[in-house]
Amino acid sequence: MGVVVVGGGNAGVEAAVAAAGITEDVTLITLNRRRIGELSCNPAVGGVAKGTLVRELACLGGAMARSADGAELQFRMLNVSKGPAVWGPRKQQDLHRYMALQRRELERAGVLVMEAEVLALEGPRERVTGVRTRDGVVAADAVVIAAGTFLGGRLFRGRERWSGGRVGDAAANALERHLAQRMFHVKRFKTGTPPRLVASTLRTDAMRVQEEDGPGYSFSGRPRELRRGGERRTCWVTFTTAETSRAAEEGMESSPLFGGSIAGRGPRYCPSFEDKVRRFPERESHRIFVEPMGAEGRLVYPSGLSTSLSRQAQMRMLRTVPGLESAEVARFGYAVEYGWLQRGEFNRTLRARGVENLFFAGQVCGTSGYEEAAALGLLAGANAARVAEGLEPRQPGRMRSYLGVMVDDLVRKGTREPYRLFSSRSENRLHLRQDNAPVRMAPLRRELFGRLPQWQQLWCEELSRAEEIMRSARSGGKSLAELARRPDADAGGLARICPELEGVPRDVLETAVLDRKYSGYIRRARARSRQMERMEGVRLDDIGDYMEIDLITIEARQALNSSRPRTLGEAARMPSVRHSDLEGLMIHLFGRCST
Residue 54 in 3-state DSSP? Predict the structure, then answer.
């Protein structure tokens, strides 16, 4: 009977492809096969922490990295002004090319795609036997629910209201009701999207060109497959004005966000434009990235202008933005409110509470973003297939991967808003880099799939060889491993000192150098992690006002003052408290004890 995956978004595609790498019989059920793998919001993959997560996916055999490489229109490495540990690769995508490549991934994996609406799970509470659609029952040894924003989805635009997971697609209302009947706690979140604009109607001479870093970077670690030789497309930057904010304010009377129609909380770090206007009234300007949605360049996506205001209000706003004054709207922006499953409904393997062979993935777990959804999809799909084959599911470790950080945060802390991955969420972020993902993810890939692909095995072997050479070769009385820790040391310089290193692939050698450069920090991070495990009994009763502790973020101070956790362990489980905040609390506590 195999594995059934419910949902054809990025989480569903990854779940199905991962499951097919373990068991032969995999079925993906979606409402609309033509929209499989769609990037429903911004057509881009990667970013700070997110790009590293895509690299981790690639090293676990994930489909997103290969599709993103094949549909690339522009590449930028974000955060290059900071250290390599927090660099973020990001690729603008040709939307239709990306979707075609995602469908090809399913075909290559041998996944059966079925177009139907899943109404309910079949079988007893403890072990499901399949899913029920309008056309009948599909039997399964394990099921993955990756319904995205479709679970009880409702769409909003001004005073317009309608049911749907996104524009043009129906919602999974029956499935949401069924999960609630099975005693799962379904809550509500909200997200949104900006209008899509006709590119030929924009005045690009009034905008600034967003420079790219050029082709050459590969998420998947394999040769790039850009069609017709690899098109490049230009992105632009413009800014809203005080008139844009006034236009938004004038449209607030019909706003579903402020009128109470939307109950779900939206993403803090990707708010709607009207939310920005209310939260930051002192700001007269907000940056807008104008990005192409395809190689043909017909439509563009104004990132930063997400809104659920009425069509009239959206048009008034656009007329006040430099370069967008004459823009024609191909589709107006809207908000979507949807169901998700709160903390406690799944464990670190993403297996559902109290059910032997049911798994959740993607936005139904409370995440925000394609990359987070895809990573959870891969883990859920692989574990569902393992259960179907009579094997034990596996879980990632937070000290080894951003996937582990995300899963641990969702399970241990939960979230009060759509969860977004940041490098600051990890206490071991100097080790969780995009460059060393092949070796970091190798143990989990072996655990899940029992083998490494040849390219990854060779990469790990080359890294071991480079490390051995650096330990044994000497210059000026010091080993190259010691020299690598100097701030000015780099791979090229060490290769000139030791010709034997010239035979090591440059990307592998760069990783070996960075590992040595950050080795002291990494050891301390691991020690702090062990220390945190012992901090569950540390009391916080004596702290009167967290606003007086400038070692932690404003967000954490406000949350701690509101919730008043009794112990450091309880504080660690709060969604608004990051590991850097916990470190600040410990410094504050220990500093007080020593005085």
Answer: helix
The CATH number, out of the four listed (3.20.20.70, 3.10.690.10, 3.65.10.20, 2.40.30.260), of the domain defined by the range 196-336: 2.40.30.260
DSSP code of residue 417 = S
Q: Which two tokens stand for residue 353?
A: 């509470």
**Residues facing residue 208 across a β-bridge:** 237
What's the distance, Cα to Cα, between the start and end of the chain in Å? 66
> pTM of the entire structure?
0.90
| Residue carrying the six token digits 């495990």 | 533
DSSP states of 551-580 as a string?
Answer: TS-HHHHHHHHHH--SBHHHHHT-TT--HH
**CATH of segment(s) 538-593:** 1.10.150.570
State the alpha helices, DSSP H only, in 131-228: 173-181
Extents of the domains making up the chain = 196-336, 453-521, 538-593
Residues 6 or more apart whose CB falls under 8 angstroms from that of 471 comprise: 479, 480, 481
The amino acid present at 166, given as its one-letter code, is R
Residue 238 host element (H or E): strand 235-239
Per-residue pLDDT of the chain (595 residues; tens, 9 = 90+): 899 999 999 999 999 999 999 999 999 999 999 999 999 989 999 999 999 999 999 999 999 999 999 999 999 999 998 888 889 999 999 999 999 999 999 999 999 999 999 999 999 999 999 999 999 999 999 999 999 999 999 999 999 999 999 999 999 999 999 999 999 999 999 999 999 999 999 999 999 999 898 888 999 975 444 443 357 889 999 999 999 999 999 999 988 888 888 888 888 878 899 999 998 889 989 999 999 999 887 999 999 999 999 999 999 999 999 999 999 999 999 999 999 999 999 999 999 999 999 999 999 999 999 999 999 999 999 999 999 999 999 999 999 999 999 999 999 889 999 999 999 899 889 999 999 999 999 999 999 999 899 999 999 999 999 999 999 999 888 999 999 999 899 999 999 999 999 999 999 999 999 999 998 888 888 787 776 667 667 888 888 899 999 889 999 999 999 888 888 877 887 878 887 898 888 888 877 655 5
Q: How many CB atoms sit inside 10 A of residue 255's CB?
A: 26
In the chain, what are the helix, strand and coil shares in percent, each to the nearest 5? 40, 20, 40
**Contact present, 49 and 402 (Cβ < 8 Å):** yes
DSSP E strand boundaries for 216-352:
235-239, 287-292, 299-303, 329-331, 334-341
d(CA 511, CA 534) in angstroms, rounded, equals 32
